[in-house]
Each structure stands twice: as C-alpha cells, then as structure tokens.
C-alpha cells in the first residue's frame, strides 16, 4: 500500500477536517446534501430547482455549466451563461453553489461564480488542473476517477494540498465494473476506508454511481448508514426532459421521499439540514 500521501493522511491530522461553505458543514458528525440538475439548462429550470431545494431545507446546489460528455454531439452545457444563471439562482434562494471546472483555462472563471469547484471523475488525474485547484481560494470537490484506486484518489487530493489548498472533499461516485445493470458500481467500502486513511470529508454520489433513479434511494441509505459525510443527488423539475443524465435524475417528489428515507440513518447530532 502506498504511503506517499502525507498531507491528507490521518497520521498527519488525527481530527476530521471540517469544511464550512455557507450554511453547510462537511466533516465530523455533520451531514450535507448537495442537490441539483446534472446541467444548468435554462433560467427557468435552475430557478425552479433552486426554489424547490431551498424549501426542502437544502443549502447547496449543483449544476454543470461545462459538461464532460462522452459524445461531442451531446449537450455540452451553457458555459459562462450557465455559471451566471447558477450563481444568480443560488443567491436568490440562499444556496451555496458547486460546479465543475474542466480545465485550467476555465478554473478562475468558475471560481468567480462558485462557492466550491468540482473536479470530475474524468479529470481526477489531470495533474495541471489539480495543481491549479491548489492555487484557488475555494474548496474543491474531488470525484473519484472511473477506474481510480483509493490510493490514486488520495494522491490526487495530495496534489491539491501540496499546491496550497487544504479544503478538499472526496466523492465516491462509482467505478467501472461488470455489473451490466448499472452505469458504474458504487464502491461502498471506499467510504469508511477513505475516512480511516484520511481526515477529509467523504461524500457519495449515488446518481452517477448507478445511472438509475430507482436505485438512488437505496444507495443513499447505504451510503448514509456506512457513515458518508454527505450525498450529491441529481434533481430535475422534469427528468424525462433533462438534457443530460435523464435516467438517473429524481423529480421533486422523489427527492422529498429520499430525504425521508435516509432520515433513520443520519448522524444523530449536527445534521446541517432539517
Ligand atoms: C457530474 O457530477 O456532473 C459528473 C459529470 O460526474 P462524474 O464526474 O462523477 O461523472
Ligand atoms: Mn450528471
């Protein structure tokens, strides 16, 4: 086993790192749900979602403006306009914002609009991007690469720390496997392993892990029960019409049900949502 990571290691920092973003507290006994659409599609879509989420007690919204799509013919995101719509909706409804930066050219612009920068799975080992994220004065949500080992994920986080940014949240979002009924396989054991090896908060993304809306609730329950510090959930006002990740997006009533279904598994104290 690699022992090359030092700064992110529990050996170096015994207490959980606590990361505060607006009203959200990641780490320790706290629990945060990040929710929102895969992509920002229009002003109406993102405002409607933000309004719903705020009434559901959520305090951090996601939404991609720069989308990493497998096909060049798929919707690529609204770019700068998407960032502006997302930030506007966040401000209007009191939600902190997380969105992806795909390259070193865009990262500064994303940081102007977002409260947290997401580095997506496909970029987990984009070393120039990791170094650039280390220089940005924003927390970073680092998603596990599609085929990355646990040590590779921790070493990617080490790059960000080493470059000067100690606000990193890890996200288990499923890895490529041979289950032919899900998009990826949620590596549930990675959550307590990462928490044992590292002091960083660890959240789970059951939406991208499964690619199926019907599995989002059961996988969320499992992730919360095993001790994840939070969840990232894709929610859309009309999933069937979503321009990306339609099959895994929850509608508003499904999301409300998710909140109810995970309740029995939440940490007893310090829950950062109602
Ligand atoms: C996303 O969260 O928008 C996303 C593209 O996820 P991932 O990088 O995990 O595939
Ligand atoms: Mn998505």
**Mean pLDDT metric:** 96
Order of helices and strands: EEEHEHEHEHEHEHEHHEH
Residue stretches low in confidence (pLDDT < 50, at least 5 long) are 269-274
Taken from the alpha-carbon principal axes, the silhouette is globular
Q: Could you tell me which ligands this complex binds, including any ions or cofactors?
A: phosphoenolpyruvate, manganese (II) ion
Order of strands, main sheet, comes to 3-4-5-6-7-8-9-10
SS field, number of helical segments: 9
Write a short abstract of this structure.
By secondary structure, the chain is an alpha/beta fold. It has helices at about 45-55, 80-95, 105-115, 125-135, 150-160, 190-195, 205-210, 215-225, 250-260; strands spanning about 20, 25, 30-35, 60, 95-100, 115-120, 140-145, 170, 200-205, 230-235.
Question: Overview of this structure, please?
Answer:
With 274 residues, the protein is of the alpha/beta class. The protein has nine helices and ten strands. It has an eight-stranded parallel barrel, surrounded by seven helices. A two-stranded antiparallel sheet has the order 1-2. Helix 1 runs parallel beside helix 2 and helix 8 runs parallel beside helix 9. The longest helix is centred in the first third of the chain and has 14 residues. The relative contact order is 0.17. The C terminus is likely disordered. It binds phosphoenolpyruvate and manganese (II) ion. The site of manganese (II) ion has 5 residues, from loops.
Features:
about 270 residues; eight-stranded parallel barrel; two-stranded antiparallel sheet; 9 helices; 10 strands; binds manganese (II) ion
């Amino acid at each position: 086993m690699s022992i090359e990571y030092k700064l992110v290691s529990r050996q170096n920092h015994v207490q959980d790192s606590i990361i505060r973003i607006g009203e959200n507290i990641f780490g320790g006994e706290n629990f945060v749900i990040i929710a929102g659409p895969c992509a920002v599609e229009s002003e109406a879509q993102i405002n409607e979602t933000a309004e719903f989420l705020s009434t559901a007690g959520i305090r951090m919204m996601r939404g991609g403006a720069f989308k990493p799509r497998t096909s060049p013919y798929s919707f690529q995101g609204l770019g700068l306009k998407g960032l502006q719509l997302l930030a506007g909706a966040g401000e209007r409804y009191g939600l902190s914002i997380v969105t992806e930066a795909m390259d070193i050219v865009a990262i500064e612009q994303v940081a102007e609009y977002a409260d947290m920068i997401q580095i997506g799975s496909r970029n987990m080992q984009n070393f120039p991007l990791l170094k650039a994220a280390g220089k940005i004065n924003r927390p970073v949500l680092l998603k596990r690469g599609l085929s990355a080992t646990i040590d590779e994920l921790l070493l990617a986080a080490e790059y960000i720390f080493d470059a000067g940014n100690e606000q990193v949240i890890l996200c288990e979002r499923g890895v490529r496997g041979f289950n032919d009924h899900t998009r990826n396989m949620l590596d549930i054991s990675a959550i307590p392993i990462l928490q044992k090896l590292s002091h960083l908060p660890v959240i789970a993304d059951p939406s991208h892990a499964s690619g199926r809306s019907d599995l989002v609730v059961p996988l969320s329950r499992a992730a919360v029960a095993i001790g994840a510090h939070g969840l990232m959930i894709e929610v859309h006002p009309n999933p069937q019409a979503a321009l990306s990740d339609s099959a895994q997006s929850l509608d508003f009533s499904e999301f409300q049900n998710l909140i109810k279904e995970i309740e029995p598994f939440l940490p007893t104290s310090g829950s950062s949502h109602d």
